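FORM 12-B: Structure-to-Sequence Request
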């Protein structure tokens, strides 16, 4: 029998220059997928005029989405990372280079390198239920080391 429990999953985010020592995330949301790696299309295909199939491999960025409980240490650190890398009038972006390490309860680790935080939530939204909305942070990476 295969145990696929995710209880105990942790993510470490290392971002240079803002968080060179990194910080650990374990405060994942309950109302959205805590850690999500959407499918990445790594090849394209086509058909020649006579019906010959052709395929080719292409590099694509690897996306990762983290959904975090609002106002936790993880959210505060990700908010700092978001603010430091957001460009605005009169403000220079930190241009952090991000490494993400996902550590699973079975001991496996996935390391993504040469990444960038590409989207986040600028402030805490409020749901009609009266609850502060889950904060979503999305990253893209150039490579997966293992």
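FORM 12-B RESPONSE
SEQUENCE OUT:
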């Amino acid at each position: 029998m295969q145990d696929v429990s995710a209880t105990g999953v942790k993510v470490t985010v290392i971002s240079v220059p803002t968080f060179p020592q990194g910080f650990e995330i374990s405060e994942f949301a309950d109302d959205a997928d805590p850690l999500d790696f959407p499918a990445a299309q790594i090849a394209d295909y086509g058909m020649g005029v006579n019906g010959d199939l052709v395929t080719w491999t292409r590099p694509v960025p690897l996306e990762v989405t983290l959904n975090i409980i609002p106002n936790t240490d993880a959210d505060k650190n990700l908010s700092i990372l978001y603010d430091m890398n957001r460009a605005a009038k009169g403000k220079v972006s930190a241009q952090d280079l991000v490494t993400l390490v996902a550590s699973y309860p079975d001991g496996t680790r996935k390391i993504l390198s040469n990444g960038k935080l590409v989207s986040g939530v600028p402030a805490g939204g409020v749901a009609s239920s009266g609850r502060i909305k889950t904060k979503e942070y999305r990253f893209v990476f150039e490579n997966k080391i293992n």
